[in-house]
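Re: Re: ligand-bound prediction request (bumping)

Still looking for help on this. To restate: I need the protein modeled with flavin-adenine dinucleotide bound, output as structure tokens. Inputs repeated here so nobody has to scroll up.
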Amino acid sequence: MANVDVVVVGAGVSGLVTADRVRAAGRTVVVLEARGRVGGRTLSEPVPPVGTDSEADPKPLAGLVVDSGAGWVAPDQTLLLAELERFGIATTPQVRPGDALMSMRGKSRRYTDAARSFDPVTTADIAQGMLRFSAAAEKVDVAAPWRGEHAARYDAQTFESWIRRTCLTGKGRDYFRLACEAVLATAPQNVSLLHVLFYAQSGGGLLHLLTTGGGAHDARVVGGMQQVAERLAEDLGQWVRLYEPVSTIMHDADGISVHSESGATTAHRVVVTVPPALASSIDYLPGLPQDRTLLTQRMPHGSVVKVHAVYRRPFWRDAALSGEIASDQGPTKVVFDTSPPDDAYGVLTVLVDGEDAVRLGSMDADRARDAVLRGLASHLGPKAMDPVGYLAKDWTAEEWTRGCYGAHLPPGAWTQVGSALRTPVGRIHWAGTETAERWCGYVDGAIASGERAAAEVLAALP
Ligand SMILES: Cc1cc2nc3c(=O)[nH]c(=O)nc-3n(C[C@H](O)[C@H](O)[C@H](O)COP(=O)(O)OP(=O)(O)OC[C@H]3O[C@@H](n4cnc5c(N)ncnc54)[C@H](O)[C@@H]3O)c2cc1C
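Reply:
Sorry for the wait, this slipped through. Here it is.
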């Protein structure tokens, strides 16, 4: 006899949306979450002042909350925008007055129009590369990337080999390498061309993913993105259980039994919403089909350290700079001004991706902070060396995430075993942003996957 209709594994946005929709349909549901908080890869937190031990004496800077996980929302992320509206959570535009900086091969350029951030030859090279990339991406079937017209050919090569073949200039090649690191948090030699094409197409195109106004970085959530998960969890109340890492899922024709710290919960169906790389460390009895196992072994995460440096005021605006920086020199390759709407502080967010994140994560905290601040100072001047607050979140070190922003697939994985991504195994269903067709890797994709999984289990319940 089942305790509940559905067990959901993981209280990230995708798990909470799954549970919310199952409960709204009048069915019973329990969410089991490994961490002592909800939200998963969304985490909104205060910033400790510089000079104090953040563990012993957090003394956060008054009223300031930053997003150490997901932070931005695009105008076409309609599912996320609907959740924000449902809970009365506001957004604030990302675009700041002033020039952005592009620094490549030792040369720095100020620009307002992204299309003019390079010299004319590099601009033309990037434009032809983008055209060829978009033409190929349009051929990818985002619902089934393994099935598209040229799937086998695209999946037999890395994105790096495409870059070398396509771009005619060194700076053009550097641009696409930086784009890959910024979007997937991994170097282009680690990832299948088919996966990059799919991922870009899933989010409305590569340029859209890289764009601030109107694109993936269009706006930020006032008070932090984690509020979405917190509000969903508030509504679910006692049905969300924290500190309950799921270790084993037993399944047969009669039902499901999900084992966590406090024992077993029985149900008709289970939805596993943890990232595929972590889903593979749960024991399934009986074991999963081989294609599913092979797939989850081939979906590593990127590496990201997200840093916030807080200043008394946004001093870079004195020099008519917007605080937005793209550079080929780590660790400060991707920087945004994320000061609060009232500018009570000046806040710079640094997204340290790929190899730079691995390097930064291996340094002790003081050396890592010094490396980041020196990087900022090289673009914005010596004032960048003196923040009043500093916070760095290394997602690769997080036991229940192990890297981000999401999973990427190496050559061969999509076409050989990709069809196992969403296919239920008996009573076990799969969700999480990695399973989304649209906005895969983003919060919007997490919501879409939760809605899809909820519909699947509701249709299958007795
Ligand atoms: C630094 C960073 C920046 C990002 N920026 C953006 C952005 O600007 N915009 C955007 O849209 N997206 C962004 N993302 C991506 C976004 O955060 C994710 O796509 C989304 O939050 C994924 O939600 P999810 O529910 O699918 O997975 P998760 O959030 O990973 O949720 C999975 C949950 O499962 C739990 N779990 C894991 N294993 C177990 C287990 N064995 N038992 C029980 N529970 C378990 C985890 O603790 C977690 O709570 C960013 C992510 C990061 C880390």
